[in-house]
Amino acid sequence: MKVIIDLIEDIRESIANAEDYVLTAGLLKEEANDPAKLTYAGEAPLNTYDLDPVRRQLVFHIDKSDSRVTVGELMPLLLISDMDTMMYELRMDVNAQYNDMEIVGFGKNEERKKYLLFIRI
């Protein structure tokens, strides 16, 4: 389980808080004969996010709109959060079939200025 503080630390370490990076969902698909093996299956930009204090989650959404979540937009909100909020779990809603997905890891694409949040199906 990844939490907000994990995201803050990884963004700081891997891309030095570069504000122009776009947050992107990276899809990892389990292989049918070996669920421990994951195959990269594509990506999509994250369009919105919301902080849910009831479920104690930061939820990212893909809604096919033209909006894009950037590090520069997200980080100021996270950095002023209290320690309780920084322990909120990271989740993602991709579509009706794949909602409330756990974020299992992070990555980056320096050439395309993308910061990836990985989910597995």
What is this structure, in a nutshell?
The chain has 121 residues and is α/β, with parallel strands linked by helices. The chain contains 3 helices and 7 strands, in the order H-E-E-E-E-H-H-E-E-E.
Structure characteristics:
globular; 44% strand; alpha/beta
According to DSSP, the number of beta strands is: 7
Described by strand count, sense and barrel closure, the largest sheet is:
7 strands, mixed
| Bulk shape | globular
Structural class: alpha/beta
Note the total helix count.
3
- Strand order in the largest sheet: 2-1-7-6-5-4-3
**Mean pLDDT across residues:** 94
Intertermini distance: 15 Å
The low-confidence parts are none
Tell me the β content: 35-45%
Written as H for each helix and E for each strand, in order along the chain, the element string is: HEEEEHHEEE
Radius of gyration: 14 Å
Percent of residues in helices comes to 10-25%
Explain the overall architecture.
The chain is 21% helix and 44% strand. With 121 residues, it is of the alpha/beta class. The mean pLDDT is 94. It has a seven-stranded mixed β-sheet with strand order 2-1-7-6-5-4-3. The protein is globular, with a radius of gyration of 14 Å.
Strand and helix layout:
Layout: H1 4-15, E1 22-31, E2 34-45, E3 48-52, E4 57-61, H2 71-79, H3 83-86, E5 89-93, E6 101-109, E7 114-120
Parallel strand pairs: 1-7, 4-5
Antiparallel strand pairs: 1-2, 3-4, 5-6, 6-7
